[in-house]
Amino acid sequence: MVTKVKTNIKHENWDQTGRMLRTGEACRILCVHCNTLRRWSEQGMINAYRLGPRGDRRFRLEDVNALLTEKTSDMGAAGKR
Fold it and tell me: How far apart are CA 5 and CA 51, in angstroms?
């Protein structure tokens, strides 16, 4: 699910509410292609926040970590079948 945020708040200022990551940073943590992460955000698997006039996506670090934990636990469960 993509949430549009009409603001020009700089990336660093989001540390008050939780670390915000650029798409590339989140992709490196999740080990996925940027198109995969964009698709996941459109499918509602992870929230994306749109910032600035270009609508750049930002992802909360805690959301990325939760998705990473979910994905790794799913892979672990698949291996035990």
Answer: 6
pLDDT digits (tens, 9 = 90+) for 35-54: 999 999 999 999 999 999 99
- Cα 3 from Cα 78, distance rounded (Å): 32
Predicted structure pTM score: 0.70
Choose the CATH number for 2-67 among 1.10.1660, 1.25.40, 2.60.40, 1.10.287: 1.10.1660
- Taking alpha carbons only, the member of 32, 28, 39, 34 closest to residue 2 is 39
How far apart CA 58 and CA 50 sit, in angstroms, is 6
Which element (helix H / strand E) includes 37?
Answer: helix 34-43
